[in-house]
Amino acid sequence: MLANYIKIAWKVLLRHPFYTFITLFGISLTLTVLMLLTSFLDHLIGAHYPETKRNRTLYIERIVMQDSARQSMMSNSMSFKFLTDYAKTVKAAERVTIFSYFNGSNAYVGSRKIKLNITFSDADFWRVSDFKFIEGKPYNEQNIANGDYVAVITDDFKKHYFANSDEPVIGKNVEIESINYKVIGVVKGSPITRPFTHADVYFPYTAPKSNYQNSGMVGNFIAMVLAKDPSELKAVQSEFQSNIAKIPLPGNQGGFKYNILEVRSDPYLINFLTAILHGGPGLRNIFYGVIGFVMLMVMGLPAINLVNLNVGRILERSSEIGVRKAFGAPVKTLMWQFIVENIFITFIGGGIALILTYILIQIINTSGWIAYADLTINFKVFLVSIVVCLVFGLLSGVLPALRMSKLSIIDALKS
């Protein structure tokens, strides 16, 4: 029976090319936009190079200090010493890395200026992340202890700085802010959409201008805490919060008197949303609501249009419905026929959307709009597209099918 429904649907598609084009265009365009959005969100918050361990990583990004009335607040990243005392000492963690936010700098090749993003980090930065080394190796604890002026650069910076980028550059010098550093490693870069690992040049935290000697609580450093297993994230969080609870209150930071101190350690998605919404649970629910509303509009409006198109298409088949009802076809059978037909058409549109999405993703990845972009149609994105296809098929098929299947035999034959 199912095969017969699909054959009928195929005949219907061939019977009215214009309706078929409009229907498939609406389905494929909507699904293409939806899959591109899903792919970008996966690129933004998923576990991808070089942050492939996000599922067992906690991010410590900000210290928040408030007075007792919560009227005044100081919020900042932390000092290297603060994170060494309270994050590095978490025994439940597998590793803890302390590093700075990337910040701007300049390098010069002759009279040409190259704008850079630079990061200062400890040696564990290369163990918590999964950078691919094209040349050389990362700096280690010995380089840091010796105060070596060394650097790891990206392949993109190598192309811009060195005249012959095809030759190995390990051991060569790069001059940044009038200081010479020896290149000891070249890595494939991290996209700017992954701000914890993005930079053009990476220095040991002992390099000049890192300000790692700051003895206060605030500074320009953050941390990633790697748990041994995703199931141990709660234990790591609990131990870190126990460390923070040992800080005496009230306190004074640079003249700011505080009675409340908060330092969060969150998985990436929660940290990402907290940064956007300042941690307010009510605002977070609003954010989810807005996302849900947008998704509903993206799916719902085209579905309404498809319902109207399908009503017009099925009205032309009213005589067929009348004949089938005259021979005893029940309402349920007629409804299932139209629903199956519509789902079949929707899946064809979904197949077209997958092809269009793949082409657009390749264009985005190779265009340079997002440096090191690695958008993909992975299993999650494909699963979303399948679910959406089913939703579209049902939304745009049930109403016209129900309406047509309830036509009386006389009215159907007269149409």
Automatic annotation (TrEMBL):
It is a multi-pass membrane protein. One of its GO terms (molecular function) is transmembrane transporter activity. Pfam families: FtsX, MacB_PCD. It comes from the Bacteria. Residues 293-408 form the ABC3 transporter permease C-terminal domain. It is found in: Cell membrane. InterPro entries: ABC3_permease_C, MacB_PCD, Macrolide_Exporter_MacB. Keywords: Cell membrane, Membrane, Transmembrane, Transmembrane helix. One of its GO terms (cellular component) is plasma membrane. The keyword Membrane applies. This is Putative ABC transport system permease protein.
